[in-house]
Design goal:
Elements (H helix, E strand, L loop, with lengths): L1 E2 L2 E2 L2 H9 L25 H4 L8 H12 L11 E4 L1 H11 L8 H10 L4 E4 L1 H6 L1 H4 L5 E4 L1 E2 L12 E2 L3 H6 L4 E8 L4 H17 L3 E8 L15 H13 L4 E5 L6 H5 L7 H4 L6 H10 L7 E5 L8 H15 L15 H12 L3 E8 L16 H9 L3 E4 L3 E4 L7 E4 L6 E6 L4 H8 L2 E9 L2 H12 L15 H9 L6 H21 L9 E19 L5 E17 L7 E3 L1
Parallel strand pairs: 3-4, 4-5, 5-8, 8-9, 9-10, 10-11, 12-17
Antiparallel strand pairs: 1-2, 6-7, 13-14, 13-17, 15-16, 16-17, 18-19, 19-20
């Protein structure tokens, strides 16, 4: 991003925001090895959760959560939780922004912010469920501290049932347990039972694992955010099969020793953690079955001008707790690049000439000449579509693929990489929030990668047009089907192979000559097949009938030279 001829790297901007906490960027965790952790990723549901006792409906709901929002398919999750109207009183929470007395504005904020989900009360989500439950995953938080009884006690009571969450279309449910409080045992039993009901109905579960006990606060230190105590709270949470643990970032350690209660081990403080916030957070994660259950850190309350720094701190400590990562690629850490662009406008520069997003890596997949780091079809679509560019006087326009090459010097660990224009959503997002002259997105692909993509384009193998099979020679049809992205292409290919095999068998039986290369497709028909009757079981002995439709595919091939006897494959 350049302003008045001055360019500042993404890493430099993060360092300026963090201030004294910028040392986090160079920290090397030497406590629990990253190799021992189950790290987040787009395949987390398949890799970790599919082996559990979660039902397919729960796995589907969790995959929906992971795939939603700006962080979709990164493995990281950002949830907007708004239950402050009950937990802290509506007046204290919404008076600064009265618009949020209206529940619709809470949900709209989550959508506009690109969150993976919105978590709130029965009343908030129920008020707009028919309008928004299909647009963003709902998480119904069913218990709260009502905060009006006097004197107030640290208790969480039920405000909603699991059936109400299911009926409104919620993808998940959430609850709080105040571990250490007088009511924690009842809360634990109650939440465990309701989490079981949620799983039976196909919803995932999120548990706020917060500590509440006056004994956790000594004369000198507040240990409510101690890594050893909060880590044990996390461990209790995953024991009742919470799919995601919500926990505050740790600020210290040694709570067990300070209050002289419970059991711990000296290695918790010498080998498994340190005084560093990243190491403390990693210990919290270790208590979530080494990451088998997700850990999401709370951003905490608003503190005014320091909110951006607090958000970046959360976005740094948490990813590093999951293993070493390069911080130069901002968007991969939960804070989108357009957010940093807006921060740069408000706090760093008086004017911005160009806002350029650069994405690059030095990934090498050994043993493969050509191996994209993500879906090949995503690669083809993003790189071969005309890239968008925005200019203040011109608006949005498109350029040629791989245009405007430039060498961008990424931070240490990657180095200089040639980047070219590629289609990406930042070009559409940033002009909405940032006053600048030009917006571009460039991706570091490499000369060989670009040559391969250009060849695919020249051969027409990047086309998404429907595949025409009828009238094609068999070998040409096989090529079209093999590179088609249509789900049905693989099944059609199998039927075509069957038709060719039948033709060969018939030729051998008739002692006739047949050249497979001369076969052409003379007929290709897809009709409705039989209906498979199935039932979906439900509670109280009920069941819903399902009629699974099938298709019947018929392909006829014949010799191109003679148009002789036709052979069918089904």
């Amino acid at each position: 991003m350049g302003a008045s001829g001055v360019a500042t790297s993404g890493l430099g901007r993060i360092e300026s925001i963090l201030g004294d906490d910028a040392s986090l960027l160079s920290h090397q965790c030497k406590t629990i090895p990253a190799s021992d952790l189950h790290l987040p990723g787009p395949d987390f549901v398949d890799r970790i959760l599919a082996a559990t006792d979660r039902t397919p409906r729960v796995l589907s709901a969790l995959q929906l959560l992971v795939d939603s929002g700006r962080l979709g398919r990164t493995g990281y999750v950002s949830i907007l939780p708004v239950d402050q109207g009950i937990e802290h009183s509506a007046g204290a929470s919404f008076a600064p922004n009265p618009a949020y007395f209206d529940p619709e504005n809470i949900v709209k904020l989550a959508i506009e912010g690109g969150c993976n989900a919105v978590a709130s009360t029965l009343g908030v989500l129920g008020a707009v469920a028919r309008k928004y439950a299909h647009k963003i995953p709902f998480i119904l938080k069913f218990n709260h501290n009502e905060f009006i009884s006097y004197p107030n006690t640290y208790d969480q009571i039920r405000f909603a049932s699991i059936k109400q969450a299911f009926d409104m279309g919620a993808a998940g449910v959430g609850a709080t347990i105040y571990f250490g409080s007088e009511e924690s045992k009842r809360q634990l039993q109650e939440v465990a039972e309701m989490f079981q009901q949620a799983h039976e109905l196909g919803m995932f579960t999120v548990l706020w694992c917060y500590l509440r006990n006056s004994a956790f606060k000594t004369k000198d230190v507040d240990y409510h955010l101690s890594a050893d105590l909060s880590g044990q709270a996390n461990h209790l949470g995953v024991t009742i099969e919470a799919d995601i643990i919500k926990q505050k970032l740790p600020e210290n350690n040694g709570g067990y020793n300070a209050i002289n209660f419970g059991k711990t081990h000296k290695k918790v403080y010498s080998d498994l953690s340190s005084d560093h916030p990243i190491d403390l957070t990693r210990y919290q994660l270790a208590n979530c079955y080494m990451g088998r259950s997700g850990l999401i850190n709370s951003g905490g309350e608003s503190k005014g001008q320091s909110d951006m720094a607090e958000a970046v701190l959360t976005a740094v400590a948490w990813p590093y707790a999951n293993g070493p990562r390069h911080i130069g690629h901002v968007s991969g850490f939960g804070v989108p690049s357009d957010v940093f662009a807006r921060y740069a406008q408000d706090h760093l520069f008086s004017a911005i000439d160009e806002c350029g997003v650069r994405d690059g890596a030095n990934l090498v997949v050994h043993g493969y000449d050509f191996a994209p780091g993500f879906s090949i079809w995503t690669t083809i679509e993003e790189c071969l579509n005309p890239p968008a560019i925005w200019e203040k006087d011109r608006g949005w326009y498109t350029a040629a693929p791989f245009s405007e090459p430039e060498v961008f010097d990424f931070p240490e660990g990657i180095g200089p990489v040639e980047c070219v224009n590629v289609e990406h959503e930042e070009v559409a997002l940033i002009p909405r929030w940032v006053d600048c002259e030009r917006v571009t997105f460039k991706y570091g692909l490499g000369e060989e990668f670009i040559d391969v993509l250009r060849t695919l384009h020249k051969l027409g193998l990047d086309s998404t047009d429907p595949v025409e099979v009828r009238g094609q020679r068999v070998n040409e049809a096989f090529a079209l089907l093999r590179f088609s992205k249509k789900h049905a292409a693989k099944q059609i290919e199998k039927v075509l192979k069957s038709a060719v095999a039948n033709a060969e068998q018939a030729a051998r039986a008739a002692n006739a000559a047949l050249d497979v290369d001369d076969l052409v497709i003379t007929k290709a028909i897809i009709n409705e097949g039989p209906k498979l009757k199935r039932f979906t079981p439900a509670a109280m002995g009920r069941a819903t009938p399902m009629k699974k439709r099938t298709s019947h595919v018929e392909i006829v091939v014949a010799d191109a030279s003679t148009r002789g006897t036709k052979r069918k494959g089904r």
